Amino acid sequence: MSYISESLRVLFGAAPKRPAAEEITPEAKEIHVYKKQNPFNKAEFERIYAQAAEKPSPHKWRNRRWITLILVNFLFLASFYFDVQLLEGALTASRFVGFHMADLNSALQVMLAYKYVVLNLVIGTVTIFILWLLLGGRTFCSWVCPYHLVAEWTEALHLWLAKKKIVRDHPFKRGVRSVLYIIFALLAFVTGYTVFETISPTGILSRAIIYGPGLALIWVGLLLLIEVFYSRRLWCRYVCPIGITYGVVGSISPLRVVHNLKDCHHEGDCRKVCLVPHVLSMTTKGRSPGVEQDVGADCTRCGLCVDVCPTGSLRFELKGLGKHLKN
Q1: Domain match, 182 and 299 both
Q2: Is residue 19 assigned to a domain?
Q3: Do 191 and 238 have their domain in common?
Q4: Nearest to 126 by CA among 154, 97, 158, 103
Q5: Is 94 in the same domain as 220?
Q6: Which of 192, 231, 266, 210 is nearest to 44 (CA)?
Q7: Are residues 207 and 85 in the same domain?
Q8: Count of domains in the chain?
């Protein structure tokens, strides 16, 4: 239960807690003490990175994710274009071979705006809840959401410009997202209009892919420009309530990224590539309370940290089934 409460606390904007001495297991304490007394030297790091460079595919999980995301969105387009009624609708609300599916955040907005519940909306919400409960909540963000993909590509441009000292990142407090979550919900309830769905780049891009581009893409373009030149991944990190909704579901999901303290060399590469680096606080030297520590609910399960980790200290795991997913 402590994992869930801490995950939700961090998800809603709190800083990760440094574990108290009594919260660290004896096995983890022993490893922490050993690492403190026997620090890794430069030669050791060079050897590890040399071994990691020999991997046949350094971006295995990223490539799997990109392919999956593109195929899911292409399936919407193909079903509409060829009128095969396989996957109808868009990401906000759809029907897969007859089964209704409704995005959890969109369904909440609709119920608050119209103040009544339609049976198909309930069925679709339950279907999606079960799906993302099994797959890991915020997995939706990195494995399905089209905005996540284009933002990931433009993020690479931001990082290149930052390296050249042409731009500088301007981070915000993560708690802003929680405040905006409440504001969007209140706006839907008071105005009777799904305000968030109007400006959500997820819905805009999904509909543009399926039904063709519209003027709303100008808004998406402006968001991407802000993320390139002002604040890295602004929308996903500090605004989008979808991440909170699916993060709550992910807090009880069996699919998680797990950190192994014993193998970790704490070089920090994982935190550099992570969209939500606060979830990897246990990779900082001296911060892991256990030998095996689950990454929190705000994790998008994108796999970038798993790909970049030179020691294999981060991996996907199905909790309760004792199964590790192959890297």
Answers
A1: no
A2: no
A3: yes
A4: 103
A5: yes
A6: 266
A7: yes
A8: 2
Quick one: which of 112, 63, 116, 101 has its CA closest to 206? Answer: 101
Residues 209 and 98 in one domain: yes
User: Is residue 284 domain-shared with residue 223, that is, in the same domain?
Assistant: no
Residue with tokens 């904007």: 13
Q: Within this chain, do residues 204 and 224 fall inside the same structural domain, yes or no?
A: yes
Q: What is the 3-state secondary structure (H, E, C) of the chain?
A: CHHHHHHHHHHCCCCCCCCCHHHCCHHHHHHHHHHHHCCCCHHHHHHHHHHHHCCCCCCHHHHHHHHHHHHHHHHHHHHHHCCCCCEEECCCEEEECCEEEECHHHHHHHHHHHCCCCHHHHHHHHHHHHHHHHHCCCHHHHHCCHHHHHHHHHHHHHHHHHHCCCCCCCCCCCHHHHHHHHHHHHHHHHHCCCHHHHHCHHHHHHHHHHHCCCCCHHHHHHHHHHHHHCCCCHHHHHHCCHHHHHHHHHCCCCEEEEEECCCCCCCCHHHHHCCCHHHHHHHCCCCCCCCEEECCCCCCCCCHHHHHCCCCCEEEEECCCCEECCC
Share of the chain above pLDDT 70, in %: 97
The answer to whether residue 18 is domain-embedded is no
What is the number of other CB atoms lying within 10 angstroms of the CB of residue 5?
10
Last residue of a domain, one of 246, 279, 297: 246
Give residue 323's pLDDT band: very low, low, confident or very high (50, 70, 90): low
**pLDDT one-digit tens code per residue, 47-74:** 777 777 777 778 899 999 999 999 999 9
| Identity of residue 62 | R
Answer for the pair 146, 209: CB distance below 8 angstroms, yes or no. yes
Distance from the first to the final alpha carbon of the chain: 28
User: 157 and 228 in contact (C-beta within 8 Å)?
Assistant: yes
Domain ranges, residue 279: 2-12+25-54+254-324
Helices 242-250 and 119-135, packing angle to 10 deg:
60
pLDDT digits (tens, 9 = 90+) for 81-133: 998 888 889 998 888 887 888 999 999 999 999 988 888 888 889 999 998 99
